[in-house]
Write a structure and sequence with these properties.
The chain is α/β, with parallel strands linked by helices and 314 residues long. It is 26% helix and 27% strand. Bound molecules: NADPH dihydro-nicotinamide-adenine-dinucleotide phosphate (NDP).
């Protein structure tokens, strides 16, 4: 069985930053990318708030830079998906693609988060046939068509603005009388003539047999139901941490985020560290993910040195 000193799970800003620091600390990290190589930033267009890019940068280009830097430092980057872990044994056991099991002295979890869905039967059935959770990925297919975005956070606003550049009409469905998005994003949405905001609006069903043709919505204030013709339906209601494989292995909070000790990336299991969106339900920014990735590598390095010292004294 392959035995590695430091195993990093996930390839977003947190994972790659952990890889850069762990490589430079000579931990010889092996990083498994997961299916969504590069993480959520691969689905973003312009990133304007990551320091060091004064002119902004495209999300995928930024992640290529992160990956290239981790590779240059010597990280062994492998394509593969972690399907299970056993943290009750030491060295920890991590299984890739249900087939290969590795032993790891330290594990850094940076599995990120994924888009949430409404949970409607029609949403699942029409996923890929007009239903999407990524305007940047799929918006192009709806050029000059009418679409809807559900959600009231920064993601929903960003998606609506992106689509408003392609589509003559974007319906933004907000379930209450207020948005969670930042003031600047709300102002941009409100000023865009192609976006119509529907307050107090809940989606009952997405209509269409093989392709989305309309949505059935309920105004919860007037109790009126209406069918609005659309061709694309974009869900932008937040994210869920990708931590299902760690259930029962490490402490998770009720929303599934990994619990880390205050001011560190230590989990409740010795030798297991967590960083990025998998443990951060508050900031969820690329720069904070990268920051905690750095912390995880430093924590792992110090922890491993301490373990080696203890062993050498035994
Ligand atoms: P948020 O959690 O901020 O917002 C989720 C939105 O979806 C809320 O308006 C919520 O409504 C709504 N919602 C949740 N569930 C449902 C449902 N079942 N039906 C209808 N609406 C629903 O998630 P975001 O993904 O927007 O943002 C996450 C974080 O990322 C935030 O911190 C945000 O600031 C940040 N971000 C920053 C960006 C930037 O700076 N450019 C871009 C994108 C995100 P309610 O308020 O009623 O709960």
């Amino acid at each position: 069985m392959e035995h590695v000193k430091c195993l990093i799970i996930g390839s977003g800003p947190a994972g790659y930053t952990a890889a850069i620091y762990a490589s430079r600390a000579n931990l010889k990290p092996v990083l498994y990318t997961g299916v969504e190589v590069g993480g959520q930033l691969m689905q973003t267009t312009e990133v304007e708030n990551y320091p060091g890019y004064p002119k902004g940068v495209q999300g995928p280009a930024m992640m290529d830079d992160f990956k290239a830097q981790a590779e240059r430092m010597g990280t062994d980057i492998r394509w593969g998906y972690v399907t299970s872990v056993d943290f009750s044994v030491y060295p920890h056991q991590v299984t890739i693609d249900e087939s290969t099991t590795l032993l790891a002295d330290a594990v850094i979890i940076s599995t990120g988060a994924s888009a949430k869905w409404l949970g409607l039967e029609s949403e699942a059935r029409l996923n890929g046939y007009g239903v999407s959770a990524c305007a940047v990925c799929d918006g192009f297919f709806y050029k000059n068509l009418e679409v809807a975005v559900v959600g009231g956070g920064d993601t929903a606003c960003e998606e609506a603005l992106y689509l408003a550049n392609l589509c003559p009409k974007v319906h933004l469905l907000v379930r209450s009388n207020k948005m969670r998005a930042s003031q600047v994003m709300q102002a941009r949405v409100e000023a865009n003539p192609n976006i119509q905001i529907h307050w107090h609006t809940q989606t009952l069903e997405i209509l269409g047999d093989t392709q989305v043709t309309a949505m059935r919505v309920l105004n919860t204030q007037t109790n009126e139901t209406s069918d609005i013709p659309i061709q694309g339906f974009f869900v932008a209601i937040g994210h869920k941490p990708n931590t299902d494989i760690f259930k029962g292995q490490i402490d998770l909070n009720p929303e599934g985020y990994i619990v880390t000790k205050a001011g560190s990336t230590y989990t409740n299991v010795a030798g297991v560290f967590a960083c990025g969106d998998a443990q951060d339900s508050i900031y969820r920014q690329a720069v904070t993910a990268a920051g905690t990735g750095c912390m995880a590598a430093l924590d792992a390095e110090r922890w491993l040195s301490h373990e080696e010292f203890v062993k050498s004294q035994a």
